[in-house]
Design brief:
- By secondary structure, the protein is mainly α.
- It has a domain of 171 residues.
- Helices cover 69% and strands 0% of the residues.
- It has 12 helices and no strands.
Length: 291
């Protein structure tokens, strides 16, 4: 019987789709373990804080006070007291005072729009920078600046705490650095959920301990602060206002403006503003952001 030389008819669309589904069903699914672990972490909101991404409204579940308290706590690092004391000793009271006032005013004016947009639209500094026209490369560079600032301040904070452990518990600074570095790891891995709970308990204690040293000094020596207004610094050159000393102190203080990157990272969890909560919303943004 002769073989047919007629061309085979192409399968119709339904047959092709069925064959494709059968092939997909038989093909083994290769899921990399790293991807599987990442998906499980993302599915757990305790460990997910939408880093470098838009924060959806369903995740912005905390009250205005809770978010503001968390953001305010992020700016309450001990190194600020050391910076202020250094300005006082180096440039005198009058120059340090006006430099701190000018620094606060500049940071407030620059940080207000950043805080408002971060809280209103649920975006962090990376997305704000990208949306402002800097693009992916520009936002990457600015994120590197914020990250470098954070690393430096974390190192300074660890140094303060390490020496505090040495004074209180006689722990060598080397071990103190290691302890301070390890303790923060669980907080970082569990994101803003764990940090906000920690701030609720520790913020009142921090406020009390901020005032206690001044009360102690006044009780022990009531005249300790009587001459501080006329203090001219270590070299006594800052007894009067001098523009070079003021500018040098302002340069040191204005470097703290990069802290707004971290403040925006917390304010993006602020709940949406409504007519009933508008006052609380603005107060929370001001306290947790430029304030």
């Amino acid at each position: 019987m002769p073989l047919s030389t007629a061309p085979l008819a192409p399968p119709d669309a339904a047959s092709a789709a069925a064959l494709g589904r059968d092939a997909d069903a038989q093909a083994p699914q290769q899921v990399v373990k790293v991807r599987r672990d990442y998906n499980s972490w993302v599915a757990t909101e305790t460990m997910e804080d939408y880093a470098l991404r838009y924060t959806p409204q369903r995740f912005r579940k905390w009250s205005e006070w809770r978010v503001a308290n968390t953001a305010f706590g992020a700016a309450s690092f001990l190194i600020l007291e050391a910076v202020g004391a250094t300005l006082l000793v180096q440039y005198g009271f009058i120059n340090a005072f006006w430099a701190i006032v000018a620094t606060g005013l500049i940071i407030f004016l620059a940080g207000l729009p950043i805080s408002v947009y971060a809280a209103r639209y649920g975006v962090d500094m990376d997305l704000l920078t990208r949306g402002a026209g800097f693009g992916y490369i520009g936002s990457t560079l600015t994120s590197l600046i914020y990250a470098s600032f954070t690393f430096i301040f974390f190192a300074l904070e660890a140094a303060v705490m390490a020496y505090a452990l040495e004074l209180a518990l006689d722990i060598p600074p080397t071990w103190g650095y290691l302890i301070c570095a390890i303790v923060v790891i669980p907080l970082v891995t569990h994101g803003v959920s764990a940090i906000s709970r920690l701030q609720v308990w520790t913020q009142p204690l921090w406020l009390v301990m901020l005032v206690v040293p001044f009360v102690y000094v006044i009780v022990r020596d009531p005249g300790a602060f009587s001459g501080i207004v006329h203090y001219g610094g270590e070299s006594m050159r800052g007894a009067t206002f001098q523009l070079p000393l003021f500018g040098a102190a302002l340069t040191v203080g204005i470097a703290l403006i990069t802290q707004m990157g971290e403040q925006a990272d917390y304010l993006r969890f602020m709940p949406a503003s409504t007519p009933a909560t508008r006052g609380r919303w603005w107060l929370g943004v001001l306290v947790g952001g430029p304030g």
